[in-house]
Design goal:
Elements: H1 2-16, H2 20-27, H3 47-70, H4 78-97, H5 105-121, H6 129-136, H7 154-187, H8 197-237, H9 242-281
């Protein structure tokens, strides 16, 4: 009887064990306002994306606040030196791109870089950590799905891209005035002849849309692909063989080191494109 019960238990465990595709789909599904059955769905609210975006944003603010409080005029420590290196890098880039008042733009670029970097860095956490944590504290029946990388959600990256789009419109109107901005929409780049107004307007609309969509899609695509590769590597560790475990350790370590470059590069690119787009708003055709 004991043998039969053990056999039934093993069969039941095998029956309920997720397949590779089920495992990946589970980890790529958001904790949302309703069930998510596709990658892109703007009709739902992803609570995990909102929570972690705000959480790492607060952490970033505390991080910079601590750096400002500990700043000294003498020999800086490692923490202060690292923060000063980032601030100087952002200031140099904003100075090279935007010629004029950078009282708001330079801090904006620093905020974008730190925020996106921290959101991207959530990808380094173990893929099963939150799932096991929620089950351990008794929330597994409430939070069935959870994704901790806000930039791997197209809703999040396009939301940031739309904020940059709003800044582009704001600075276009602020620098050129409403009349100047409307005139540029209809008269650039082909000329001010009435026959060219519609082609000019259409080209400018396409330019604004392309900038916004590509800004959000680029960050999303890179981080989504990185998250998917981590999940595939995690599946290697689930195989009950030494070969699978060894490949899991080796591939995970190599990809983690390579992913550090991706995380930093994507944060830098998003910051640079934000500066470039806002800088273009300061210039006329």
């Amino acid at each position: 009887m004991a043998t039969e019960l053990a056999a039934e238990g093993v069969a039941g465990a095998a029956e309920h064990a997720p397949t590779a595709s089920e495992y990946i789909v589970h980890h790529l599904t958001h904790f949302s306002s309703r069930h998510q059955d596709k990658i892109i769905d703007f009709s739902i609210v992803n609570y995990d994306t909102i929570f972690w975006s705000l959480a790492v944003g607060i952490i970033g603010c505390l991080f910079m606040w601590m750096a400002a409080r500990r700043a000294t005029s003498g020999v800086p420590g490692r923490f202060q030196a690292m923060v000063e290196l980032v601030v100087e890098m952002v200031e140099d880039q904003s100075k090279a791109i935007i010629h004029g008042n950078r009282a708001f733009i330079a801090p904006l670029a620093l905020t974008v870089f730190v925020w996106v970097l921290l959101m991207n860095s959530m990808d380094f956490l173990p893929v099963d950590m939150f799932d096991r944590l929620f089950k351990a504290v008794g929330l597994g029946h409430v939070i069935h799905f959870h994704r901790a990388v806000p930039t791997a959600d197209l809703n999040g990256t396009l939301g940031m891209a739309l904020a940059v789009f709003a800044l582009m419109l704001f600075y276009n109107i602020k620098i050129k005035g409403i009349g100047g901005f409307v005139h540029e929409l209809f008269c650039a780049p082909f000329g001010s002849h009435p026959a060219l107004w519609i082609p000019n307007l259409g080209l400018n609309i396409i330019e604004f849309v392309a900038k916004t969509v590509s800004l959000g899609m680029r960050l999303f695509g890179n981080m989504y692909a990185g998250e998917l590769i981590f999940l595939l590597i995690a599946l290697l560790g689930s195989t009950a063989t030494w070969w699978g475990f060894g490949m899991h350790v080796v591939a995970g370590s190599v990809w983690a080191v390579f992913h550090i470059l991706i995380v930093l590069l994507q944060a830098f690119i998003f910051m640079m494109l934000t500066l470039v787009y806002v800088g273009q708003a300061h210039e006329g055709h």
